[in-house]
Amino acid sequence: MNLQTADMVLVLTTVLYFTSMTGYLLFLFNQKSACQKTAFYLITTAIVFHFISMVIYTIASGHVPIQNLSQSLSLAAFALGSMFLFFQYKFNLKILGVFVSVLLSAIMLAVVMIPDAPVEKNAILRGFWFYSHILLVFTGEAALALACGAGILYLLQEKGIKTKSPGFFFKRLPSLDFLDNVGYTCLTTGFALLTIGLVTGFIYAKTIWGRFWSWDPKEVFSVGTWMVYAALLHLRLYSGWRGRKSAIMTIIGFFIIIFTFLGVNMLLGGHHQAFTK
Amino acid sequence: MSKIILIGINHKTAPVELREKLSFSGEEAIVALEFLKQDKDIKESLIFSTCNRTEVLYIPQAGDQTNDQVDKIIEFISHQRKIDSSEFKSSLYIYKEDDAIRHLFRVASSLDSMVVGEPQILGQIKQAYRVAVENNASGVLLNRLMHKAFSVAKKVRKETGIGDNAVSISYAAIELANKIFSDLSQKTVMLLGAGEMAELAVEHLISNKVKDIIVANRTFKNAVDLAQKFNGQAVKFEEREDALKEVDIIISSTGATDYVLTQAQVKRAMKKRHHHTLFFIDIAVPRDIDPKINTISNAYVYDIDDLKNIVESNIEQRGKETVKAQRFIEEAVLKFRKWLEGLAIVPTIKALNDKISSIVDIEFNKTLSNLKHLSPEDIQAIKRMTQAIASRTIHDPILFLRNTGDHRDDSLYLNVTRQLFNIDIPEKQ
């Protein structure tokens, strides 16, 4: 059990994600369920290996792999994969796998390409609140990424129907109602996880720095992101923002998440910065 | 060798009035099959009859090669349906051998249907075959032929896009509804106008099971009548805007010269229904539904021209897929022909073998009866020798027959063999 093994397993995982993506893209074109099944088994295997790689890393190094950009991305990918398995099981929306496998492959490519920044042992990165914060925020954002995927599929299907030119996607995508429903479930799940994740973050900050809030740029943007989603849910529930508008909002929301996740640290700094070096 | 013959009429050769007269109901088909079974000139038979076609598929007894019973079957149909044969004879098509096989495969694959690619035909043929099996009218040949027909039809459906696209207006509308709503059985339909068009549209929707049907019509009585027919409820025409709050799909077919639903009305209704999706199907000419409603979010308006456009592009698509389907069918016909020929080869070889063996036996016994001095060992040795000569003599011809090459007409060689050796095969597999 050493770091090299963890890296090797991680590369294997990446290869599996890419093979799965090929399967899903094939499925998108030829609609053979065998392709979808194979791709789904591949992605499941990839996620299992991904987990194994992280376990090996943790055992070998003595800390969880979220110490630099590459590791954070890798964890985000793992969270996305796990959430996908969960929602796939719940909705059996096969075509969502196309979106997820492409996104996962892209993230993993980045993970493998980005040189590992040296990891310093940091005593404050542990404890119950720290782990809950990480777990909840990452799974929450993964669910919101899926909501974005469902939103994209919705817009594709909606455009064909609205403009009366059912094309390539018409047969391949399920009904608007269903996509909206999937998006909404992902959205509420993600929002709930993110909310608790932020709360645990505040508590963690209190235990480490003695205060809940320190105007750290990441904190500001996270709360901003949270408010965007809160607004979207509110509009949906009270002003009937469903369908197209809701889909567009979930996509915008996800881009804000990506910015909060990467952009803030790179451009603005702050005490989350170490994770994305 | 057995012949396969198919006699029938379909929507291309006969008008509906004639097809009606010639169609067999389920029970009538059973009675007819029973008649055919009694006929010793007909070995196997099957009748299938739908609203678009009536076809009789049969295998005549092979003994008489010159007469394939076509006239008899035509007479039979005329007698069964109590219609003079002169009335329908000119509309009949008569296919034999490969043509019959090909036609059957085409019908099963829905290439010969009025709406090419429609899925019901295969089920109807399966039903007809089941009836034939239950009444012992089908045998080795038809069983094999029908199973081949089913498998090629399945292949065509699976591997070509022939059944993918809706090619009628009402199917196109239902397909759209299914891509907008996830579960039509939870959705309510409102009909604006109680005319014949509305009725037709709803019939299709009912077969897709919607939750509820509301009918609004200027003449309230007609609305009530139609609503009763479909177990729905009738509302006054003036209440149509209020009803928008409750319904999900609106099918409009009034004779109004102006829009019966305007953008402003739908906008108001949208708010009340919390922007849940509305789907408008406007089959009226001139149009009933303001096309601007389509710009409201979560509202979709399709008029008759939009639906026609979709249907046309689907038909075009289907045409391309037909070419592929035809290739599958040709392959299947060839394969079946091979099997049929193989079927004929085995009995010929056996008959050839039997004939030679019997000649050897007769001559051996004749000779032996004059040679009393031979020891049992000698007798055995001579017997073995005669048998060996016989089998060596016909070894090459048999090898030639068995080795069915791809580029030769096996039936020709079989005929030659039978004539050369004067062997008569009782055609019973």
Class based on secondary structure composition and strand pairing of chain A: mainly alpha
Given this structure, which CATH class of the largest domain in chain B is correct? Answer: Alpha Beta
Q: How many beta-strand segments of chain A?
A: 0
Low-pLDDT segments, ≥5 res of chain B: none
3D architecture notes:
The complex is a heterodimer of chains A (277) and B (429). Chain A is an all-alpha fold and 277 residues long. Chain A has two domains: 1-68 and 85-116, no CATH class; 124-277, no CATH class. Chain A contains nine helices and no strands. Chain A has helices at residues 3-30, 33-61, 69-91, 96-113, 128-162, 168-172, 176-209, 217-239, 244-268. In chain A, helix 1 runs antiparallel to helix 2 (33-61) and helix 7 runs antiparallel to helix 8 (217-239). The model of chain A has no long low-confidence stretch (mean pLDDT 85). With 429 residues, chain B is of the alpha/beta class. Chain B has three domains: 5-164, Beta Polymerase, domain 2, CATH 3.30.460.30; 169-311, NAD(P)-binding Rossmann-like Domain (Rossmann fold, 3-Layer(aba) Sandwich); 340-421, no CATH class. Chain B has 15 helices and ten strands. In chain B, strands 7-6-5-8-9-10 form a six-stranded parallel β-sheet. A four-stranded antiparallel β-sheet of chain B has the order 2-3-1-4. In chain B, helix 9 links the parallel strand 5 and strand 6 (212-217). In chain B, helix 5 packs across helix 7 and helix 6 runs antiparallel to helix 7. The mean pLDDT of chain B is 84. Chains A and B meet through helix 5 and helix 7 of A and helix 8 and helix 13 of B.
